Amino acid sequence: MTSRAKSGPLPLLTRWVRTSENEAFKAFMIKEIGFFKQTEATPILASMLETESSSILKISIIETLGKLGHQEVEPNLFKLFPMTSKDVQRAIIKAITHFKTAEGLGFLCYSYNRIFDNELKIEVAYAIQQYGEEGSTALRELSAKSNEFGKKIFDQVTYQSGL
User: Fold this and answer.
1) What is the rounded (10 degree) CA torsion for 8, 9, 13, 16?
2) What pLDDT, in 10s, does the model give residues 16-34?
3) Radius of gyration of the chain (CA)
């Protein structure tokens, strides 16, 4: 496929995603859409996200939409976050971090205070830190209102990032 892509644009790979019954193949093709930067496939992937029940496919779709910078899906990711598995939540956090919108930063800060899973809490803190100075400010504010474990998370994030 890579050599074919060099000779001209590839046809939309969503055709194979929609017609295949094999979940692993679908996930692979969705990732290939991101690899070949087929941004014209983003509306199709966004609509699939709303109907897809497979966590594997949801993760592939979310990662690809994040990689392609399809910010329009961000409000849907906010809604999906509390009702999904930890692996899907991780993909959502990563995609939101790719978008780097003010709404995304607000969502991450809001979510940080509502997450009970410590590993996920740490991932959210790292995601907030990736927002640069605005993220650092948000981390300081969250740290000031946090318990001892929360303060340790912020100390670790700021130490790792050199802030």
Assistant:
1) -40
2) 999 999 999 999 999 999 9
3) 18
CB neighbourhood size of 89 (10 A) = 23
How confident is the model over 26-78, as pLDDT tens digits? 999 999 999 999 999 999 999 999 999 999 999 999 999 999 999 999 999 99
Q: Can you give the pTM of this predicted structure?
A: 0.89
Give the Cα separation of 16 and 26 in Å (integer). 7
Q: According to the 3-state scheme, what is the secondary structure of 60-94?
A: HHHHHHHHCCCHHHHHHHHHHHHHCCHHHHHHHHH
- Between CA 120 and CA 93 the distance in angstroms is 9
